Amino acid sequence: MNSICIFGVFVADLCFFANKIPVKGETVLGNNYIVGPGGKGSNQAIAAARLNGEVNFITKLGEDSHSEMALSIYKDAGVNVGSIIQDPNLSTGVAGIMIDENGNNAINIFAGAAANLKNEDIDKNLEILKKSKVFLTQMETPDITTIYAIKKASENGCITILNPAPARKINKDDFKLLDFFTPNETEAEFYLNKKIDTEQDIKNAAADFLNMGVKNIIITLGEKGSYFANENEEYFINAFKLKNEVVDTTGAGDAFNGALAVALAKDFSYKDAILFANKVAGISTTRLGAAVSMPLLKKVEEY
Known about the structure:
Elements: E1 3-7, E2 11-18, E3 30-38, H1 40-50, E4 55-61, H2 65-77, E5 84-86, E6 92-99, E7 105-112, H3 119-123, H4 126-130, E8 132-137, H5 143-155, E9 159-162, E10 180-181, H6 185-192, H7 199-211, E11 216-220, E12 226-229, E13 234-237, H8 252-265, H9 270-284, H10 297-302
Parallel strand pairs: 1-4, 1-8, 2-6, 4-5, 8-9, 9-10, 10-11
Antiparallel strand pairs: 2-3, 6-7, 11-12, 12-13
Helix pairs in contact: 1-2, 1-8, 6-7, 8-9
């Protein structure tokens, strides 16, 4: 029983590349444009499946060209699609992504059909949760249903991972449902309502999350790596040293979380799981796009 259940959103990514990301009221001339699959949950499902994880993805799509793109890439990646719901009365989600010459990005998301996910959609897929070792979700789906899904996963013995992106309010008691909480620095600042600048700030933030009931906290730090803590141990892990230059950071966090889920499903030690996730995330930044940048396990092992 090493399967992974991921709950989240698919959107079609409309990626615009330019020397800079425009500020309010500004127009810039772009130099490239790509349409591809995206959405944090979808990216994480593809990342995990390409790493040979056994992945079930719970989401909702319309019946349109964007949904056809989603189902096609899931087939290619090996994501199980039996839990995907299609509604002909709703449109599949879309995201507008602007990327600058350094690979930084700004994103606007319309979740579309996935914004209509309900608790009943989780109930219909309880058998999948019962058979899963790891449950992974984010904060792009409706809050009520996201927390309901985490509760059901926890009740059924899954290792629960919440990647709080985008950062949204979580009730205090719900932190206790989380086996792993994986915010980046900005998201951690949102939940703690304080700046995180120094290494000591990061350590203090991790301690705060543990005090809130999170069992294992991983604060991802981009090019600086990540920081892990639980009641028994704590440590920084450096980012993976890349052979190629960073061209696009879009989806790096999703690569990290998808890889973490695979590693935990395969019973890696926590440190080895984070090292593996850092490596996968790093490799993803050397490729353009989000879902399409997720590396195959063979490539990760060769790198």
